[in-house]
Amino acid sequence: MTITTLSSRELNQDVSRAKKAAQNGPVFITDRGKPAHVLLSYEDYQRLTRQRRNIADALAMPGVADIEFEPPRISLGARPAEF
């Protein structure tokens, strides 16, 4: 699975390129550098909406490893217990 990113301007100038890219994986469409939309093939859309999945199924999808995701770390301060 290949993930493609196009700006809105690139999409408007070459829709056929975006449609071809969507056959190999999702196409992220950006507005001012930020993801705004995703173009999927109809088959991928049907597969995604066919049934509700749990988080384990979603994480097992092909291509998930290619998605950059770094959640912020939080620190929880420990306090002594009051008895």
Automatic annotation (TrEMBL):
Name of the protein in its database record: Antitoxin
Entry-linked InterPro entries: Antitoxin_Phd/YefM, YefM-like_sf
Superkingdom of origin organism: Bacteria
Function comment: Antitoxin component of a type II toxin-antitoxin (TA) system.
Chain ranges passing through the membrane: none
Gene3D superfamilies: YefM-like domain
UniProt family annotation: Belongs to the phD/YefM antitoxin family.
